[in-house]
Amino acid sequence: MNVQFSSYGNWVKPIPHVLASFGVDGHALLNSLGLSNHKEGERLPVEKTAEAWRLAAQLSGQPSIGIHAAKAIHPASWGALGHAVLSCENLHHAISLLLKYPAFISDSIRIEAYEDDETFTLETFPVSKQLPGVESLEFGMATGFQLLNAIFPTQLRLKSLSLTRTEHCEASSYQQFYQCEDIFFGESSAKQVFYRNDIYLPLPFANADLTEHHEKLVQQQLQQQGFHLGENTFLDQVTIRLRQQLRSGQINQSKIAEELNISSRHMQRKLKALDTSFSTLVDDIRKQSTAELLKTGRKSLTDIAHQLGFSDHSNFTRAFKRWHGCTPTQFLDSTRPR
Q1: pTM
Q2: Which is higher by pLDDT, 5 or 62?
């Protein structure tokens, strides 16, 4: 069965404005793709939004077109979700709110958040090499950064930025926009690495009542568009927390249940109703994460085993053979160029 991914309709709204600054008719571009007359709040096929941003970059001669377009974005561009973010207590609260409703942005990406003593990282995984498209993905990342920058009391800056684009592109546009020097291209995932102190800095216009009010509007809008927020959101939240735990090498089912304000037994019942279990989720995420970590080549097998919560290297090797039909060493040998 083919899965139809979609993006928030406002995803292509900035294209005419940004292309006009390069002498290009953006309205004609959208019209050629059948995107010029969509209704406010309507969701668009992600294949169309990806093509729109790819053509925008091509016609303007600006590979980093998403950066140029994001400069004109303000919180109202995000609708009710943007207004909810405006009154968050800190950037961590704002990011948590954005991650709570990934479908509001696009269902063609997966975003994970994790932190250490000095940094806070947002890592974005595209659903495929084709979708949501390099230009569209970079626009989304830049608009998210612009939204956070709008509520931050000073200029927000990144420690580093990793992007998935493989073709040559000048780093200066990204360095200026994100206020950071370290830009990496050709990565398997996109990463925005923030300074942790910035993420937890109290914001001057925090208002819990306003955030709650606008969050309810977001929920209403998604439900009207056919997104069910109940059980699916629950599964997403368990998965997100489990991935965060795996990064620290510690898996604690009770802690995740506590964070969701339910008992471990209740969490297991809810997962069973979704035809899965906590142990199945752990196994699936370990399998996916192992391949991703091995391909980066940045960690030893022992470090990967520890990060994924295995008690020793032999247990990790047995699990890997069950997942992939070979040992980790054999897997690495098969991926190396000959």
Answers
A1: 0.71
A2: 62
